Amino acid sequence: MLVLNKVNQKFLKMVKQSRLTVFVFVILLSVNNQLFAQILSANNFAQAENVSITNFRLDIRKQKKVLRMS
């Protein structure tokens, strides 16, 4: 009975530790997802800014051509 009790205690300890690991893993996963979402939104914003800058440059080039032709 004593041996069974010790085995039971070890098993409970393992279960508690694994619960803790799963808990930490879930927390890390959620933090990682939030960071990933922030990076994606920042990337989308940067791409939109980049497109607007490119369009602005193209407009300037067109205006230069128009000025040269006139």
Detailed description of the structure:
- This protein is mostly helical.
- The mean pLDDT is 80.
- The chain contains one helix and no strands.
- The protein has one domain.
List the helices and strands and how they pair.
Elements: H1 2-69
Work out the count of structural domains.
1
Alpha plus pi helix count: 1
Radius of gyration from the CA trace? 30 Å
Q: Given the helix and strand composition, which structural class is it? A: mainly alpha
Largest beta-sheet characterization:
none
Molecular shape: rod-shaped
N-end to C-end Cα span: 102 Å
What is the average of the pLDDT values? 80
- Percent range for helical residues? over 70%
Strand content: under 5%
Strand and helix order: H
Detail the poorly predicted runs.
none
Number of strands: 0
Short description:
The protein is an all-alpha fold. It contains one helix and no strands.
